[in-house]
Task: structure prediction
Amino acid sequence: MARHEHLRNLILLGLLALVLAAAPNQLSVYVRSFLLFTMMYVVLALSWNIISGFTGYTSFGHVAFYGIGAYACAILVADYRWHWLASLGAGAVVSAVVAVAIGYPVLRLKGPYFAIAMLGAAEGTRVVATVWDSLTHGGLGISLPSADTSTPTYYAMLALMVLTIVVCYVVGHSRFGIRLNAIREDEGAAEALGIDATRYKLAAFVLSAVFPAVAGGIQAYKVLYIDPPGVFFVQITIAMALMSMLGGKGTVIGPIVGAAVLYTAQELTWVNFPSAHLIAYGLFIIVIARFMPRGLVGFAIDRGWVRKGMVH
Amino acid sequence: MVGGADDIRLDVRELHKAFGGVRAVDGCSFAVPRGKISGLIGPNGSGKTTTFNLLTGVVTPDTGQVLYRGEDIAGLKPFQVFRRGITRTFQVTRIFREMTVFENMLSVTGLDVPDRAARARADELLALVNLTHLRTEYGGRLSYGQQKLLEFARALMTDPDLILLDEPAAGVNRTLLQHLLDHIHRLQESGKTILIVEHDMNVIMNHCERIFVMDYGVKIAEGPPAEIRRDERVIEAYFGRRRQR
Result:
């Protein structure tokens, strides 16, 4: 892609970051919180997209990394008196280590087998968090020391979102990203072209595990209470996948758009149809899947509004 | 006959591979001459494809050696084989459908060149096979013939030394086939070694200098086309034994 296009995209991202950075003081607590969650879902959808969109390994268990990050933050802040920002880094490291341990065996599986193994891995992590009383306080969950955390967590999430977007953008437009795509398209052919699929997949998997962990940590510090069912909630994984697919998985802009649209839709249906919001939400997803199987970005590409391919 | 060891690019020695009770390759040996176009033929089920997969690391041999530049590459993984300078195409093309033609070219690894050089090489090869105008089109939108050309061009990204072609003529029209064969000859003239697995007898007989014939997992004959055409064992393998008396 031409250099001026990268520059334009960088400026657009900078403007978005500036607007979001200026926003909190003028906004109600509700809107600020809404923005924070939207940014969190952008991070989650983009992360899921690295392994599942770019690389084609659909994960049904990515919430595990989110939960690990949340627990790392809660434990270190509540029990070990760490500074919360330092705990985010620790969460990322722990998550990366767990990703290697899970990914090494599980990435040998393909398609539905990988998806289900990941579902199992996430459930397993939740069970560990529930039964490992001495570390996690078990099913009781962890309360963090009370503090006004809404402004710092807002900025932390904004910074994380910008970082995630930049990393995904660089990966998506690099030869590394193309090779992940090649693995998605045909792993055997990719290996015949010199791509060490095992290493590439593991790298993508670890990368996709790091950002959700930081997001989970920030989230834990925002709400100041976590428990296993809350942070290892399977619906968070589903949201990552749906948002990514809605926007257009395998692209960079897709998961960003998807997260913003779907989270807004979810919030609107929740507010307007409290008793029927899941039905409205479900209908929305069905309509999208029926008419835009490749997501909003895929829809735009098919009509020639957006150029095909990431590298030009 | 093939001369000294220097004239041999790939020395296959006593390869064995069994799948359960089926001995797909059962002690197959042959030596691919350097800088020439060779052909590997045999009836269906004779073990050609398995042999090809053994050479490229897709399948690991039970026993036997594949010597390439003095190294036994049997049992290496496909990407390791590729990085040693051996490239292949597939019987049914395996281009990356949801990636553009240009991205297909750039996906190849093992080029220790900066991004700009890789892009230049990709464009050069696309021009060679007349696909420049489809550079930003998805691979899956190409006709089968164009996909075959793309796969061929993609296999040449790293300037490989040994090129293995799995049925290049399959599903390709005559004009395109001629086009491909011209490219293959040009590669050979530039010093590359080429091994073709092929069903199309015309391709094999007219373009290969040396032919290896397999049946039941072993090499049953070897020689230049004129010899192979008359070889009793080959005729028998393809058409069955002549009725006695």
About this structure: Chain A touches chain B through 25 residues (CB under 8 Å). The mean pLDDT of chain A is 91. The longest helix of chain A spans residues 197-223.
